Amino acid sequence: MKVGEVKKILSLESHIEIKEIRKRKEGKVDVNEIYIKSARKKVRCPVCNQFSSKVHDYLKPSKILYLDIVGEKTYLIVSKRRFECKNCKRSFTEDIGLTNQDGNISLKVKQKILKDFLDKNKSLKDIAISNHVSEDKARNIFLEATRNYPKVIKRLPEVLSLDEKATYTSEGMYSLIINDPIHRETLDILKSRKKEDLIDYFLKIENRKNVKAVIIDLYVPYKEVIKVCFPKAIIVVDPFHYTNHVIDALDKVRMRLVHESEEDKKSNNYYLLKNRVNKGLLLKSFSETKYELKKKEEQLEKYTQGTSKKKPKDKFNDYWYGKIKIKKNNKFIEITRVERLYQMLQLNDELLKAYNLKEDFLRIINNVKTDDVKRELKNWIKKCKESNIPEMISVAGTIDNWLEEVVNSLKNEQYNNGFTEANNNVIDKIISVSYGYKNFEFFRLRALTILRKSYSGESQKNIENGKLKKWVFFVRNSKKRCKKREKILKKVKIPIFPFIYRRNY
């Protein structure tokens, strides 16, 4: 490879000259050593800001880790000069601009490390290996970039979302995720979800009284925290949590019946209740009458046979009406899933009652007008208590305790934890890739930088709009730059990535 091509590939500045290119072995790995020097005749003095051309002496060559060439580890061997300023009579070392001060890792390698930290699929170990640095070095580079990350939120939005996440760090089992669901931003991650810790945290924020709504799950201490810290806010329970609570109660009824029929594992009752497919049918919402079901089945049959062009609604898809094989009299026969569901419900009166109560609840929260929903829910709670089914009585008590908050969620459908649950999936990925985190602060900074795509603590939107006054790290596409290098890179494959630059550096 020619010297000119190497210079363009490495994106070295025009004043840097390549003297020599060597190859050597570092264990079993090929390593490139590129000897460089500065061709500048005059250098500006860092003290008096005057140009100087008088060379005082030459320093020993320093080794700087640089970006890989063709997947091979690369070092820049830099020959630096010391200049003597005629104006202030001081000597200084020239700055080639490859590193910070006297560092042995180039800025571009640091930029790549910081870019890798924004990837949720990469662990600290993966980042360190791919960039030829130690784990401690990679961690220190990351912590240096996030040293100005705020420890407390300065201002809160009008709508908040609180949700815990199992993180198993040194600080405890659960962490609290604070989100802005309207603007879809993650605000902060706290090391604890304890009532005292949350109150202490939120009382430090000046505009907390401007919060109008807080979305939570069915964790009781959250309610007490909101009353103390956000006196003007309404409490909204996320629909997913209380709906799932009711569905879980039905599943508990099924599991109890499974244990009761466990003595005869070959019985049809045990098979129907234990089967995984049947369990899914039982938990799904299907509130149509027998006549309507039969009509839909006939409609689907005509459509599949080609005698009718009218396609059934998406609600009545193949999952419900598709054929499944069951064993009867030592022979396999095919029946529809709906038929199988009716077979299950005929097994036990308790199961049928619990299923109907679950369907009634889903009908209330999905179809009943908001003005009547509170009355309908009270009637539903009464039916559950009269059913004498322990699981349904328990869930009815929970809904009764959270009745106002449930009604608030139905009246304000735009408030939900959908964005929060999506973020939880990202956090799960961050934790699983690294096999967990011991240090909570490192986990917090890693998760926030990934979720916010920023090293400043501010949103990516603000960064892109140039609203930040302080220096920040941000990701910038270098497509134009890459296009200029396409001709050179046709034969030589090297990784191309967006660089992270420091404003006002």
Care to give the gist of this entry?
It is built from 21 helices and 18 strands. It has helices spanning 3-10, 107-117, 124-130, 135-145, 195-202, 220-229, 239-260, 268-274, 276-283, 290-305, 318-321, 337-345, 349-367, 373-386, 390-401, 403-411, 418-433, 440-452, 460-464, 479-484, 486-489, and strands spanning 16-26, 29-38, 43-44, 51-52, 54-58, 62-69, 72-79, 81-84, 91-93, 159-169, 172-180, 185-190, 213-216, 234-237, 323-328, 331-336, 473-476, 499-502.
Structure description:
The chain has 505 residues and is an alpha+beta fold. It folds into four domains: 104 residues, no CATH class; 76 residues, Orthogonal Bundle (Arc Repressor Mutant, subunit A); 111 residues, 2-Layer Sandwich (Nucleotidyltransferase, domain 5), CATH 3.30.420.10; 171 residues, no CATH class. It contains 21 helices and 18 strands. A five-stranded mixed beta sheet has the order 12-11-10-13-14, with helices on both faces. Strands 1-2-7-6 form a four-stranded mixed beta sheet. A three-stranded antiparallel beta sheet has the order 5-8-9, with no helix packed on it. A hairpin with a 6-residue loop joins strand 3 and strand 4. Helix 2 crosses helix 4, helix 7 runs antiparallel to helix 13 and helix 17 crosses helix 18.
